Amino acid sequence: MTPVDLADLLRATAAKVLVERGSDPAVLPDEVKVERPRNPEHGDYATNLAMQVGKKAGMNPRDFANLLAEALSATEDIEDIEVAEVAGPGFLNIRLAKAAQGAIIEKILAAGAEYGTGAALDGTKINLEFVSANPTGPIHLGGTRWAAVGDALGRILSAQGAEVTREYYFNDHGAQIDRFANSLVAAATGQPTPEDGYAGAYITEIAETIVTAHPDAVNLPDAERHELFRREGVELMFAQIKQTLHEFGVDFDVYFNESSLFESGSVDKAVEELKATGNLYEKDGAWWIASTEYGDDKDRVVIKSDGKSAYVAGDIAYFENKRARCFDLCIYMLGADHHGYIGRLKAAAAATGDNPDTVEVLIGQMVNLVKDGAAVRMSKRAGTVVTLDDLVEAIGVDASRYSLVRSSVNTSIDIDLGLWTKQDTENPLYYVQYAHARTNAILKNAESFGFDSVTTDFSLSSSDREGELIRTLGEYPRVVATAAEMREPHRIVRYLEELAGVYHPFQSDKDMRVLPLGDEPVSPLNAARLELVKATRQVLANGLGLLGVTAPERM
């Protein structure tokens, strides 16, 4: 019985108790919280359900907890609960029967790679836009964080039944692209980098590639030369970005060109529609969206006084395009300097007559590299920033992804290059991957012992250490569901470290021997413990898979 199963059982039992006492079951919360007590002596699980419901049902919480405990004990059908005891002002401590703990292992092994999946988001179409770095240079560390977190979040949402489309918004329109083209022209013609341009070895490399393909490029008239370097430069830069992401294990379903919104007339159409509804007004020669009417902190310029479109114009048309593609939810993953986009995008949705709740904006904080206690600031190719390629070269793909997902995106993180290259358990990733490798080693060694001929008896797995490991494995589905609901992939990372922290002592404990010694025959207890090791390996592999990190068979 997993915590999710127990929560459902508690809710059903509490509803029955309430009905029998003439109370309305509607007072029950939508979600029953079931937690593991810090002290194992208090039971396997605990719930504060009685404290949430008692007073609403006109009862003392402790009295309601007693009624709930009696109902759980008196029902013959409920064989999974060994003891239900009331504590404090109304907590209910529950200890599972040994057979119920064994059922968790059987459930994991039966589900295999599907263990931990759910149906909370079944039928929900989600557009998940992340990275979307401008094609004016290699992906920097902020974009790298979103690559790791966004890809993991997509996997987690899919595991809860969502139909997820990973989308990269390809910004190939606007002033930044013009500055990029000017920088390429300067490099090709031997001129200094423009004051507002881009520098770095990658600019020279791209310029040289264009000149090699078009030897007469530098001699073209200014306008033609600029357009050639703009077009070819963006294509070459974005090809590098896509290749870098692919090698990082991140591929997108859709690469959406910003320029298509202007070329198709979508931006003009969105502007005219907003004018017609009165949500766009003219002031100081510019057109403004009345976004403060919909919760934004200020109105935003959509069409500037020179007649050119501001970024907001493209944002509005892009949102409408996503909704026209029938997405129920549009998640935008943006950098630390984009806090204003939260109110802006939600207000834009509302101004177009849509539901602002179809927009979610996640903001990721900064990433810093540290080596020997000092910040690492310079890139080999980009010159002024550290890139995805730099990070992977320093610590590898697995460690890069894991370290970037490990903390909440709401916090800035320092990645210690020395820590993440260590091949010992001080490295959090090594600690988790080593747990998987250890389970695999036991299962490999077990092949010659004849376990198939022995009946498994999970009731023999009665030690506290075994019970703790089983209960930790049972937590996994709820962790995945919460990570999806809260959009927090780091919960998977922390869970895996907790699981590894429970498994390593189990395997190292001489009293928890899985394989028989010498010529000893395989016992039912050996068989039960081997199934527990199998279940642990499965959950470790499933969790690492959601992060896009490998589960090595040996280390």
Topology:
Elements: H1 3-20, E1 45-47, H2 49-53, H3 61-74, E2 81-87, E3 91-96, H4 98-111, E4 125-129, H5 141-159, E5 163-170, H6 175-188, H7 201-213, H8 222-247, E6 254-257, H9 258-263, H10 266-277, E7 280-283, E8 286-289, E9 300-303, H11 311-324, E10 329-334, H12 340-351, E11 359-363, E12 367-371, E13 374-376, H13 388-395, H14 397-405, E14 413-416, H15 417-420, H16 428-445, H17 464-486, H18 490-508, H19 524-547
Parallel strand pairs: 4-5, 4-10, 5-6, 10-11, 12-14
Antiparallel strand pairs: 1-3, 2-3, 7-8, 8-9, 12-13
Helix pairs in contact: 1-3, 4-17, 4-19, 5-14, 5-17, 6-7, 6-8, 10-11, 11-12, 13-14, 16-18, 16-19, 17-18, 17-19, 18-19
Keyword list:
14 strands, 19 helices, alpha/beta, 555 residues
Structure, explained:
Helix content is 49%, strand content 12%. The protein has 19 helices and 14 strands. The chain has helices at residues 3-20, 49-53, 61-74, 98-111, 141-159, 175-188, 201-213, 222-247, 258-263, 266-277, 311-324, 340-351, 388-395, 397-405, 417-420, 428-445, 464-486, 490-508, 524-547, and strands at residues 45-47, 81-87, 91-96, 125-129, 163-170, 254-257, 280-283, 286-289, 300-303, 329-334, 359-363, 367-371, 374-376, 413-416. Strand 2 (81-87) and strand 3 form a beta hairpin. Helix 6 packs across helix 8 (222-247) and helix 10 (266-277) packs across helix 11 (311-324). The mean pLDDT is 93.
